[in-house]
Amino acid sequence: MPARAPGRTAVRDRLRRLTAGAAVSLMVACTLNGTAPAAASADVPPAPAYEDPALPVDDRVEDLLSRMSLDDKIGQMTQVDRGALENRSDLAAYRIGSVLSGGGSAPTPNTPQAWAEMYDSFQRTALSTPLGIPVIYGVDAVHGHNNVRGATIFPHNIGLGATRDPGLVERIGRATAEEVSGTGIDWTFAPCLCVARDDRWGRTYESFGETPEIPSAMTTLIDGLQGASLDAPGSILATAKHYIGDGGTTGGDDQGDTRLSEAELREVHLPPFREAVERGVGSVMVSYSSWNGVKMHGHRYLITDVLKGELGFTGFVVSDWAGVDQLDGRQGFTAAEVRDAVNAGIDMVMVPHDYRRFIELLRGEVRAGRVPMERIDDANRRILAKKFELGLFENPYTDRSYTAGIGSAEHRELAREAVRKSQTLLKNDGGVLPLDTSAKVFVAGKNADDIGNQSGGWTITWQGGSGDVTPGTTVLEGMRAAASDPSRVVYDRYGNGIDGSYDVAVAVVGETPYAEMEGDRPGSMGLDQEDLATLSRLRAAGVPVVVVLVSGRPLDIAGQLGGWDALLAAWLPGTEGAGVADVLYGDHAPTGKLPMTWMRSAGQQPINDGDGKEALFPLGHGLTYDGTGPDEPGDPGDPGDPGQERCTAHYRIVSQWSGGFQAEVTVRNDTSAPLDGWQVRWTPSGALTIGSAWNAVLTRAGDTVVATGSGWNARLAPGGSTAFGFTATGSPAVPAVSCSGG
Ligand code: GLC
Fold first, then answer.
1. Which residues form ligand 1's pocket by a CB distance below 6 Å?
2. Nearest to 173 by CA among 239, 270, 110
3. Do the domain assignments include residue 349?
4. pTM for this structure?
């Protein structure tokens, strides 16, 4: 099944094949861009090389580039929001190469069919240009195809980080790619590989975790999105974002300043991008933030020298939304800002509105010699290569075979599985959970019966919103479906009506939707007054209280925790709230592990694993129902027999090449107490020369290699884990490894 419906090039090729050598004119029914059927004759000119899919991509790129004017090339570097086009024909007139839907920028009606029609219409316009270069269309499908009503909305990244399941995340990538493909769209601005170091940051929920290992592990999303090859059916282009250090700003200030040494920046924020590049991510989006006071959108060293040079990134770099405008700190963009951003290594600029002015300014900078033509050509090579690899020239239109699968039962079941696996049980006194299906349950809280609240930001609109925003199952609906008698599950948002006749009260509370800077919480990080009042009512009834926290981050709840019998972090589950009920009623035991250290108070922020601060719950904390897992916080736990292995090491080959390989070793603390000073040892099967190593110090003791933690990860929280890696020459045979600690 072709990835998309045949387009102009395929039709023209058929035309040539039909008429090749023929002495007669043939009336071939074909529509090029919707025009009337065109007469053909044997004198059809030979197809230009770039239209020949049998040629290597590089050859096609060079041929096409040789035919392009400066305006053609600048157009390819221009990305506009769908709503910014004053008229559709500007797409062709200005040779614009990319369109995006910013958060919530949707057609009316907001249906999959309308999206597909819109996409195909843009494509027809783009293909009407002399060179017929298709557009590439990008959206923020960051937890499913979340702009589209009816699409499956998966848990946000913080919940997926709690699963510690890269295979699940890859499957989510695939399902998301299929739903995006069903609307024609070619490209998602995901995954966010941010390492959130300060939970006050409004984008904490877009992070898989506070250490580089968790986002690095979850780069499997890229494999799911991009598939076995970009032109395979259902594959779309992925984006590693936001390069670099977006999650490390001082105070968690969105778009703020990340003040770190280069060594710290490389140790904490670079590994996920290295992993993404190794997985072949097609694009990288630059961060709004700064590094030590220098805006990333103008950072030539980090974009060109490190990302493209050192890491060998061969895809294209896209700016963030009007990110170029921020370089001089003033409203709007100038020729100098355009020049500096493009010369720093940005290949495509998400303008996204005043495209005429952008094109005019960049043209002026090139003609003045302030932006070298080599830079323009390099940007075009990178962009065009991805368009060829995506198969857009051969099959530019929507593959409608995926449209019906948007919001499918299969995808919703996958999302429900992800919700279950993300549930993180932090407290469970007296085994109040799981609930008995026959129990008389009082449910309260603003997040119990609200699809919008449980989905969070980037859902249908940019900021998201409360209410019935898209089809799905709320937590309450899931609970009633799980109960043997739904009428015994009573709901009142505010807790009015609760009394001692109930077996248990369940309060589903937390945050309401937000995105980006709107979610920054530089002050209080506690529950709002409504939730606190609701909880008071429930507690006054004298029944056990289970709290389900629907939030995009850890919250400051230590002061209330003593009055709760159980606490389940549900994160932002998305449309399949029944996955929360699956855990509450014990159909599935909770397996989630904290992807972020949980503060004792907001005053501790930033608080991260290994920083010496006393957390309420450590990174990696998570209980289950069989009584295993770490004990209550503060409990020293069983130090374990010093003689027994208190940690487990898992060694895997990440990649190998002639004569060399890269390995990754995951180290897990198997005790319920912090583990200091772990060591991993192995004896290679043959000669081994270590090249580079990260996140551990590797030494030799005779034939044995000894790896120890590199400072920030030398201490593992109870149940916590870390990973280190290295490159080496020698045999990639997997050795037996042993782990010891403390
Ligand atoms: C936003 C975000 C970025 C998103 C882009 C396009 O401002 O920073 O994550 O991909 O704009 O919507």
1. 102-103, 140, 189, 241, 320-321, 516
2. 239
3. yes
4. 0.82
